[in-house]
TPT-domain-containing protein (Macroventuria anomochaeta), 340 residues
Amino acid sequence: MVEKRPSTDGLVDNVDPRESTEFEMEELPTYEKPAEPSPVSLKDKLITCFWISVNTLSTLGLIFLSKRVFSDPQLKQCQLMVVMWHFTATGLVLFLSTLGPFRAFKPVKLNVWNMMPVCAFFAGYVVLGNLSLTFNSIGFYQLSKVMTTPTVVLINFVVFRKTVTKWMLAAILTTCIGVSFTMGGEVKTAFFGVIIATLAFCSTALYQIWIGKKIEDFQVSPPQLLLNQAPISVCLLIPFVPFFDTIPNLSAVPTNLLWSVCASGVMASMYNLSQFLIIGRTSALTFNIVSHLKTILILSIGWYSEGKILSPREWLGVLLALGGGWVYSHLALKAKKQAK
């Protein structure tokens, strides 16, 4: 006989399988892992290498072409007109780079009157740089530019009371000593060139300090500022041409030198454009290393083309100047990274 068990019907509620909102369990906190930076594609690496090559070649081309142009007696008297051509070519290339399909940056129109002092200083320091290249050897011209950084540090200390670490100061002093070792022969043979070179790197240092503040004031990027600077600087130089330049007889100037003038303008524009693109695509350290490599290339090719044989004292000066500059830039980048 089968035993009958009591029915469970009515004793168990029909439970809705959906989640109950009456008793919700507290969710455990979750922590998102920081997204790892995506690897740089081969295409981006090749583009970066391309612009680094363009910047290096345009720097070398601009210096050596300008030196060749100013070796002509007539073109040597056209300093302002050559600078105006470089500004014009730079402005045109920057303007074209804002159009499709390039669109490297967005153009911004700034107030002309506010731009006047910046453009005047910009034109002045570029003219002094060209005069330094005209009256000095390529090697000394390039090495004297290393003094820009110590001058910036000195001005920042005197005017703004900004200090540097003892190791940075040691690197700066090493750079100054190195440049002084290479100046001995130049002072004896081209004292006027040394004065021009000194004015050139001092004006460059002042411009770098001032332009950094102006970029913050105007809230623009360097290429946006340069696109506004170039045409205004040309207009500012026009009234001075009759007083400082001599209009050349182009029929008496060799054709290859005229082509060099045209090519120097193209090189100036490509140098400015590639410089901005490299800074945007790479780190400050990469750009700094590229700058030091360019300095070594310019010094080596310049001395080779001039057939100059350096004395042991000059070799020591070059090593101290380049080494001090590299150490200072490395320490400055490290300090900037720590501050952030």
Notes: DSSP finds 13 helices and no strands in the chain. The mean pLDDT is 83. Residues 235 and 318 are 39 Å apart (CA to CA).
